[in-house]
Specification:
The structure is a single chain. This protein is of the alpha/beta class. The protein has a domain of 132 residues: Rossmann fold. 23% of the residues lie in helices and 16% in strands. The chain has seven helices and ten strands. A five-stranded parallel β-sheet has the order 7-6-8-9-10. Strands 2-3-5 form a three-stranded antiparallel β-sheet. Strands 1-4 form a two-stranded antiparallel ribbon. Helix 5 links the parallel strand 8 and strand 9. The radius of gyration is 19 Å and the shape is globular. The N and C termini lie far apart (41 Å). Bound molecules: iron/sulfur cluster (SF4) (2 copies).
Length: 249
């Protein structure tokens, strides 16, 4: 027992000081992409066909759809090296169209309106629905409950029943088998309610996009209030998005 207490004393307070202090992420972390427009020969367009997930478009310069981008370890899209990744973890947006990253930069998620903030600003209960994902997103959402992130200190908690929840946090592309379960869970959440699409799968199907066994995400099934891109999103990306929604960032 003494040993346990001494070890507890040695470890001290382990919760990260976020959002008071910005986190330092590993260099290998891939956050907001950087498009080096000056290196791009304007008539190339190879990135459009080379991205295996159709995440790149060239209209007035190169744009990347962060709802489709899987932040591949070795992005093969640009043969001229015009696409790099920063370590900026802030990626969540309020609308699907805001996930298109172009020369104007990313429009990050806005706070809820005053009425919703009065309801959920200090206490937000979420039901997590895993709608057929690979478990990557779920694992990195689970991490938010550890003492490193300590989600509960922001008044945000995951609950077991949708009837006790203020909203859903959905992961996965919505497989055929999960469609009715997702809709029934949504119906069981009392009004007013929030929906959060977490990960490329929930936003647009991710690597399963186009599969006849899945639904390409929740976009046309549920009204989404917050989009959190990534495959999976970093826990700080999810936490940052949630805090933006609650006007804490
Ligand atoms: S990281 Fe992957 S999904 Fe994203 S643009 Fe590059 S190749 Fe496409
Ligand atoms: S977005 Fe990526 S990590 Fe998340 S469920 Fe889909 S495949 Fe898995």
């Amino acid at each position: 027992m003494i040993g346990i207490l001494l070890e507890r004393w040695r470890q001290g307070y382990r919760t990260e000081p976020f959002p008071r202090k910005e986190p330092v992420l590993a260099d290998r972390f891939r956050g907001v992409p950087r498009v080096l427009h000056e290196k791009c020969p304007k008539d190339c367009g190879a990135c459009v066909s080379r991205c295996p997930f159709g995440a790149v478009a060239v209209t007035d310069g190169v744009s990347i759809d962060l709802g489709r981008c899987l932040f591949c370890a070795d992005c093969p899209a640009c043969p001229h090296g015009c696409i790099e990744f920063s370590t900026d973890y802030r990626l969540a947006t309020s609308s699907r169209s805001d996930l298109w990253l172009d020369q104007r930069g990313l429009k990050l998620a806005a706070a809820l309106d005053a009425k919703m903030l009065a309801l959920f600003g200090r206490s937000l209960k979420l039901r997590q629905v895993s709608a057929g994902g690979c478990n990557g997103c779920e694992a990195d959402v689970n991490v938010l409950g550890t003492l490193v992130f300590d989600l509960g200190r922001f008044g945000i908690q995951f609950v077991a029943s949708p009837r006790h929840a203020d909203g859903l946090l959905v992961t996965g592309p919505v497989t055929r088998n999960m469609r009715s379960a997702l809709l029934a869970t949504y119906a069981a959440v009392p009004e007013p309610k929030l929906v959060i699409a977490t990960g490329a799968c929930a936003i647009g199907g991710g690597p399963f996009c186009g599969s006849p066994e899945a639904h390409d995400g929740i976009g046309d099934l549920l009204p989404v209030d917050l989009y959190i891109p990534g495959c999976p999103p970093h826990p700080y990306t999810t936490l940052d998005g949630l805090l933006r929604l609650l006007n804490r960032r």
